[in-house]
Amino acid sequence: MSTETRFEFKAEARQILDLMIHSVYSHREIFLRELISNASDALDKLRFEALTNDALRPLTEDLHIRITADPKERTLSVSDNGIGMNRDEILQYIGTIAKSGTRDFAKALKEAKDKTSAPEFIGQFGVGFYSSFMVADKVTLVSRRAGDTKAWKWESDGTGTFTLEESARDSHGTTVMLHLKPIDKDDDDAEDYTQEWVIRDIVRKYSDFVAYPIRMKVERQKWPKDADGKTPPDAKPETVIEDETLNSMKAIWMRPEKEVSEEEYKEFYKHISHDWNDPLRRIVFKLEGTTSEFRALLFLPSKPTPEMFLQPKERGIHLYIKRVFIMNDCKELIPEYLRFVRGVVDSEDLSLNISREILQHNKQIQIIKKSVTRKVLDTFKAMRNEDRKKFLEFWKDFGATIKEGLFKAEEDRDKLFEVCLFPSTAAGDDLCTLEEYVERMKPGQDAIYYVTGETRTTMENSPLLEAFRDKGYEVLLLSDPVDEVWVQFVREYKGKRLVSAAKGDVKLGTEEEKKKAEEAVKQKSETYKDLLEFLKTRLSDHLKDVRLSSRLTSSPACLVGDLGDMSPHMETLLKASGKELPKVKRILELNPDHPLVEKMQALFAKNKEDPVLLDTAEILYNQALIAEGGKPENPAAFSKKVADLLLKAL
Ligand code: ADP
């Protein structure tokens, strides 16, 4: 047998453990919920692996969780005969806190003023096991991976190091033994977790629905009975030890909604989601069709959990078939853009030995996915209609993820547009749906206009919108990175084109107004033709064209792109993600009615080699960059040019 090896906890893990050890959190009992949850997950995993691994199948015959308490020794153990962990897995999952979300957690923890509420978000970061240190001064974990012969023992007092050594265990699975802290007499919340009734209460409260029996040996006083089933008058009770199952194991989604308490739903949500916050909303429904029959119990979280960002490929829906757990995070059941939805789907028609491969093409699964998606999107709509303010809060956290559906799930696009909210020049803090936008469209307006950019303020004040403002046209102000993507895919909404205000040539107003404007630009283009040609040649390093604008009313110049060009915001986003990009040259549009542009024309007619001409053009170009929230290409040279010009003007 190999000897014990000592490891140091990573700094972040130490911080969390330190918090646990000194926790004054009043619901310390939840440590048991966390351990039972982990055990239940481990049983799920074994059952799932056994579906495709015959050697493991005999191990799934009596899956259960056992709680053992020893009041004299002050120990409490939770053991399971689930998947277990090998040495590497223990090191990876228990030894260090490897998840990157933990770093954010540690940071949040440092910043949190009220340390007592900190455990509320511990669960979100997947450090549930560590909550044992709220009640224990030493924790011993012994585990044997199903299929392995070796077992491993992990032990720590939570203060800086842990040990790992080879050990023995009769069968596969994991036992977590807590060496409980002495009971603090001055602490009102202190409880003796070795007492049968305390354990029974906690299990009922938090883990009643766990699908595996949670067993415990209990002492019973038994009165002897005679052949007639009567207790003889002189009999004395004898103490017997019996195995009792503490939980009802009732599938919560099979029970009528009005018979399940809010508390039970909340605890179930926490059990399946590993989120310590209460859910925002629950969605209970069933489909009883001829082609498919299933029940679903779904939850919307109140805040995004780190998994949403760390493992966006995983989805939080568990699949059951006729009450039997099949797998968690079944990505075939829900589209990726709804990956934050948690819950359970229980099908009546699928075959129990279904595999991941079959799932992808299974017709029943596709029906379930479609109906789950529709139900969730309908719920969003209902939420918005019930309480727009509250829905906006939700939208702030999840809207960007939901909008991914606009291009990842074309079949849901129409329904998604009924839900999606966008900021716009006319919508205020309430944001608007496309339907609301269309209702506000002006006579003669035949398209839905949008701009993309980094912030709402820069977009709102951009010279690009001058003509729109002038005409009273509303413009969508899209600042989420995902907006850059979906606008590439969506060409129209209910017959109205979706048009970028920053690309191509925009002409606004009625047919007549458009014609007039075109005429005017044509005429002026004659006058300005040579100047435009000259500037285009001289500024060709930065620009692909210089032309007159019909979208400016008060500014002298702005920058636009061709229809297929990447927007500057998209360029910034891609560069920030480390992509090498060729320079995207833009188009400089000049306002022919602006005195500055008129003066430039006069100067050009007099002496086109006057350096002031080119300097002015360069300043206009850089100003246009600044106006859209960008930076001058060469800030120092730009400042110098401005200063020189100012000096001349004084
Ligand atoms: P979470 O359960 O939120 O992932 P924990 O810190 O409680 O976070 O557990 C970390 C990981 O350790 C689990 O994801 C699981 O892989 C492993 N683990 C914990 N308990 C057990 C157990 N009883 N059996 C097998 N693996 C376990």
From TrEMBL:
Pfam families recorded: HATPase_c_3 (PF13589), HSP90 (PF00183)
UniProt domain Histidine kinase/HSP90-like ATPase: residue ranges: 27-184
Localization annotation: Cytoplasm
Keyword Disulfide bond tagged: no
Annotated PROSITE patterns: HSP90
SUPFAM superfamilies found in the cross-reference section: ATPase domain of HSP90 chaperone/DNA topoisomerase II/histidine kinase (SSF55874), HSP90 C-terminal domain (SSF110942), Ribosomal protein S5 domain 2-like (SSF54211)
GO cellular component: cytoplasm
Chain positions covered by the region annotation C: 573-650
Domain of life: Bacteria
NCBIfam families attached to this UniProt entry: PRK05218.1 (NF003555)
HAMAP family associated with the record: HSP90
Protein name: Chaperone protein HtpG
Gene: htpG
